[in-house]
Design goal:
The protein has 159 residues and is mainly α. The protein is 64% helix and 0% strand. It has one domain (15-158): N-utilizing Substance Protein B Homolog, Chain A (Orthogonal Bundle), CATH 1.10.940. α2 runs antiparallel to α3. It has 7 helices and no strands. One of its GO terms (biological process) is transcription antitermination. InterPro entries: NusB-like_sf, NusB_fam, NusB_RsmB_TIM44.
Length: 159
């Protein structure tokens, strides 16, 4: 096979990263529409998880780790008051949680929920930094990094 006839190289999709992106989108939908976590999970699984050839860029989640997606969406909605209180403790005083962009708020809630799970904090931070870079092009990813780093250090100090 010559170099010109070789099949294109495809980067493997990261199912857990895709699940986290979908969870942020799902949490945004819960907040904006008032839908329950179960409704959003059902909608994502039925309408956005189509064939593996579907494009993530088109809003589909073909390779998402659906177990992680559902765990994050359910967990955040169930523990939202506690998560919001935790975030309020680390947000700058002039940026209360209600003032944050709704997508940024959903992202921080999802990441806060995951910090302290069996997944290492550094992995959670790296994953949500990737997610932040997918949604934001300004200073938001830096803010996400600072907040998550602070939360991870606080969590590690308690363990």
């Amino acid at each position: 096979m010559t170099a010109t006839s070789a099949p294109p190289i495809r980067t493997p999709r990261r199912s857990r990263t895709i699940a986290r992106v979908a969870a942020v989108q799902g949490l945004f939908q819960c907040e904006q529409s008032g839908d329950t976590a179960e409704t959003v999970i059902d909608q994502f699984e039925r309408h956005r998880r189509v064939t593996p050839s579907a494009s993530f860029e088109d809003g589909h989640i073909p390779d998402a780790d659906l177990k992680l997606f559902a765990e994050v969406v359910r967990g955040v909605t169930f523990k939202q008051d506690t998560i919001d209180a935790t975030l309020s403790d680390v947000l700058p005083e002039q940026w209360p949680i209600s003032r944050l962009d709704p997508v940024l708020r959903a992202l921080l809630r999802a990441a806060t929920f995951e910090i302290g799970t069996e997944t290492a904090s550094r992995i959670i931070i790296n994953e949500y930094m990737d997610v932040a870079h997918g949604f934001f092009f300004g200073d938001e990813p830096k803010m996400v990094n600072g907040i998550l780093d602070t939360l991870a250090r606080r969590h590690d100090a308690q363990v």
